[in-house]
């Protein structure tokens, strides 16, 4: 049976992907900071899902996630670093970002996913696994007030692809899922109607296709893959 760990699994893309994997027969470890929301999400995902409440920035929480993987057999087929933050909202121009605010974005979006990946490399190696880090078009484009978040995603992209080069047995992907109708997107556009954005669930089949095809390590757009998953069952 295949095993996945998905951070930020209580809402948005993380929840949609974890749900799809569980329904395909995977064992899935999911985390989130909100106890009630995480357990409600895990309950709806069904059997084989292990919710772990905590903040991925906390080293003790990352240790607990690693222990959960050990308890499931010590191999990890898929690590999805999905948990992320925009930083302070309303979003600010780069010139107005304080050092502590930038540090907070960096810790959540870059340092924490790297540290979790480092901790789980032995489990990923045992499975010849896949690292999937959720990126953004902001990592390669330039949008007013998105600079702090965008810089963190650009750094995450670079670290992801370098991990793939340094660990050739590992498939390492930085994936831009495209705009989605999520709480994070709404926070970026307070008071605006974001109903025209697609739901996160529409991105999941493309990610499953990517996992089935297992292209070379690199940066990808989810939209480049057909929404027709195959070969990703447990």
Keywords:
7-stranded parallel β-sheet, 15% strand, 7 helices, 234 residues, 7 strands, Rossmann fold, alpha/beta
> What is the CATH superfamily?
NAD(P)-binding Rossmann-like Domain
| Helix-strand sequence | EHEHEHEHEHEHHE
Shape: globular
Looking at the overall shape, the CATH architecture is 3-Layer(aba) Sandwich
Mean pLDDT: 90
Percent of residues in helices? 40-55%
CATH topology: Rossmann fold
* SS-derived structural category: alpha/beta
Number of helices: 7
Strand order across the largest sheet? 3-2-1-4-5-6-7
Strand composition percent: 5-15%
Tally of strands: 7
Structure, explained:
With 234 residues, this protein is an alpha/beta fold. It starts with a strand and ends in a 13-residue tail after the last strand. The protein has one domain: NAD(P)-binding Rossmann-like Domain (Rossmann fold, 3-Layer(aba) Sandwich), CATH 3.40.50.720. Helix content is 43%, strand content 15%. Helix 4 runs parallel beside helix 5. The model has no long low-confidence stretch (mean pLDDT 90). A 7-stranded parallel β-sheet has the order 3-2-1-4-5-6-7, sandwiched between helices. The longest helix has 29 residues.
Give a topology summary:
Blueprint: E1 3-6, H1 12-23, E2 27-32, H2 35-45, E3 49-53, H3 59-71, E4 78-81, H4 99-127, E5 130-134, H5 147-166, E6 171-176, H6 183-188, H7 204-213, E7 218-221
Parallel strand pairs: 1-2, 1-4, 2-3, 4-5, 5-6, 6-7
Helix pairs in contact: 1-2, 3-4, 4-5
């Amino acid at each position: 049976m295949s095993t996945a760990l998905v951070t930020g699994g209580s809402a948005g893309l993380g929840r949609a992907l974890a749900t799809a994997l569980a329904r395909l027969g995977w064992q899935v470890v999911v985390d989130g900071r909100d106890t009630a929301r995480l357990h409600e999400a895990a309950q709806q995902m069904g059997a084989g899902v292990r919710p772990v409440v905590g903040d991925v920035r906390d080293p003790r929480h990352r240790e607990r996630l690693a222990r959960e993987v050990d308890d499931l057999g010590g191999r990890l087929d898929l690590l999805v670093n999905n948990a992320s933050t925009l930083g302070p909202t309303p979003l600010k121009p780069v010139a107005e970002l304080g050092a502590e605010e930038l540090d907070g974005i960096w810790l959540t979006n870059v340092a924490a996913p790297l540290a979790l990946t480092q901790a789980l490399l032995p489990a990923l190696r045992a499975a010849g696994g896949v690292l999937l880090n959720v990126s953004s078009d902001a990592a390669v484009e330039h949008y007013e007030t998105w600079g702090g978040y965008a810089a963190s995603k650009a750094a995450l992209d670079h670290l992801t692809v370098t991990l793939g080069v340094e660990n050739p047995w590992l498939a390492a992907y930085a994936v831009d899922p495209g705009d989605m109708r999520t709480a994070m997107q709404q926070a970026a556009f307070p008071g605006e109607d974001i109903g025209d954005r697609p739901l996160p669930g529409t991105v999941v089949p493309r990610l499953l296709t990517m996992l089935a095809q297992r292209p070379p390590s690199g940066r990808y757009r989810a939209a480049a893959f057909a929404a027709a998953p195959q070969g990703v069952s447990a």
